[in-house]
Amino acid sequence: MPKRRKQAGSAFVEFALVLPTFLLMLFGLVFFGIVFAGYCCACYASQVGVRYAIVHGTNSSSPVSADSTAMKALMAPLLWAAPTSTTTITPSWNPDDSIGSSVTVNVSITYKTGIPFSNLGNIKVGATATGTVLF
Fold first, then answer.
1. What whole-number distance in Å separates Cα of residue 76 and Cα of residue 50?
2. What CA–CA distance (Å, rounded) separates 54 from 14?
3. Do 81 and 34 form a contact (C-beta atoms < 8 A)?
4. Rounded-to-integer distance, Cα 81 and Cα 54, Å
5. pLDDT value at 131 more than 90
6. How far apart are CA 83 and CA 34, in angstroms?
């Protein structure tokens, strides 16, 4: 019986030591899963934006032009894993938006870590896609 009394609180102490490590790993895994999903969304959105721009050049006779506001409106729903306040979509044409010019769409997302007592700062992910204006 005396041996049982010595081990009575050991399970609680072990649980108290393991729980913070387990929770840190769990929340870190979830957070980096969200960041990876944001990266995948940024890659896809930049590809869709370039596809849209190469078909709907701003100088084309198509009814919908590929100006930056139309492209941002098209790409915004595709960025479901990205916070809208820290997401930037930057299309650029080189040298201009005529046939044969190249178009580059850059999507950049910044995630705030929010981990207390950490020096991690912000995590920035992004993607860039390039194409040639066809129409």
1. 14
2. 60
3. yes
4. 26
5. yes
6. 11
pLDDT tens digits, 10-34: 888 999 999 999 998 998 899 999 9
Supply 77's token pair: 């729903």
Burial 89-105 (b: 16+ CB within 10 A, else e): bbbebeeebeeebebbb
Could you check whether the bond before residue 91 is cis, i.e. omega within 30 degrees of 0? no
Q: Are 106 and 90 in contact (CB under 8 A)?
A: yes
User: Which helix (H) or strand (E) is 87 found in, with range?
Assistant: strand 87-94
Three-state DSSP state, 106: strand
Token pair for residue 69?
Answer: 């506001």
Q: How is the chain split into domains, by residue range?
A: 2-132
pLDDT score recorded for residue 87: 93
Residue 43: other Cβ atoms inside 10 A: 16
Going by pLDDT thresholds of 50, 70 and 90, the confidence category of residue 9 is: confident
What DSSP element (H or E) covers 126? strand 122-132
End-to-end CA distance of the chain: 87
Summarised one tens digit per residue, pLDDT across range 41-51 is 999 999 999 99
